[in-house]
UniProtKB/TrEMBL annotation:
It comes from Nocardiopsis gilva YIM 90087. Gene3D superfamilies: Vaccinia Virus protein VP39. The keyword Transferase applies. This is Methyltransferase. GO terms for molecular function: DNA binding; N-methyltransferase activity.
Length: 241
């Protein structure tokens, strides 16, 4: 299986890739969420919004998480529109979001031309408590397709509820890194041997899962540091199938 990570702005890199060259788009874009008010969401850093104050790590911050709601909708719709062009008919898009941004994420998917098909909750057993309220232990994956979804042979049946916590300790290399076990379930939406595109690749968890599940991977990551981390993880995965 092959894997490549392009370092650069996805809206500049994606137009250089060939139409219909991937089988699924799976991505965890910057949520542009967090904070108590719209002003806080725009002014705070990603680390300030998504990392507990007592966290025992010094992971790098990341850019692109300070758009206002209209800017986020426009940016994500453009990104997903290019993703639709790159995805073969029948392919799926799986896009992570939180409760605040679920409505605008579904708007962006549909504005880009995808057919919205459902929401997959992601339960995080290790998550932040909320004082005098309900624990914030769930995020979401929005599922959409490019026309009618693939008919897999043999037929596949994927879970409607995902479970897994973010990696901890030395295994965590990105502020919002997703668990490989969760990503391994998601990449199965593409056929074995097919290609997964992640235009917000981060530390490369989508690509690691793709390789482990015998899929090809194309990633785009704007931050040079994260792109290097992703490439290293993909190299290590390729050496240890």
């Amino acid at each position: 299986m092959t894997a490549i990570v392009h370092q650069g702005d996805a809206l500049q890199v994606l137009p250089t890739l060939p139409t219909g060259s991937v089988d699924a788009l799976i991505t965890d874009p910057p949520y542009n969420s967090g904070g108590r008010t719209p002003a806080e969401r725009r002014s705070d850093t990603a680390r300030g919004k998504y990392v507990s104050g007592d966290a025992q790590h010094d992971l790098a911050d990341f850019a692109g998480d300070n758009r206002d709601q209209r800017g986020y909708l426009a940016w994500l719709a453009l990104l997903l529109s290019e993703g639709l062009r790159l995805t073969r008919p029948g392919g799926s898009a799986l896009v992570f979001t939180d409760w605040r941004q679920l409505p605008v994420t579904s708007d962006a998917l549909q504005a880009a031309g995808w057919t919205w098909r459902g929401v997959i909750p992601w339960h995080k057993p290790i998550s932040r408590p909320v004082r005098d309220g309900f624990k914030a232990e769930c995020e979401y994956v929005l599922w959409a397709s490019h026309g009618q979804p693939y008919r897999h042979a043999p037929t596949i049946y994927l879970p409607g509820l995902l479970e897994g916590s973010q990696p901890r300790g030395k295994q965590r290399q990105h502020i919002t890194q997703k668990p490989v076990a969760v990503m391994r379930e998601l990449v199965k939406i593409a056929p074995v041997g097919g290609t997964i595109l992640d235009p917000c690749a981060g530390a490369g968890s989508t690509g690691v899962a793709a390789l482990l599940e015998r899929r090809q991977f194309v990633g785009v990551e704007v931050a040079a540091h994260s792109a290097d981390v992703a490439r290293q993880r993909l190299t290590e995965t390729g050496h240890h199938p």
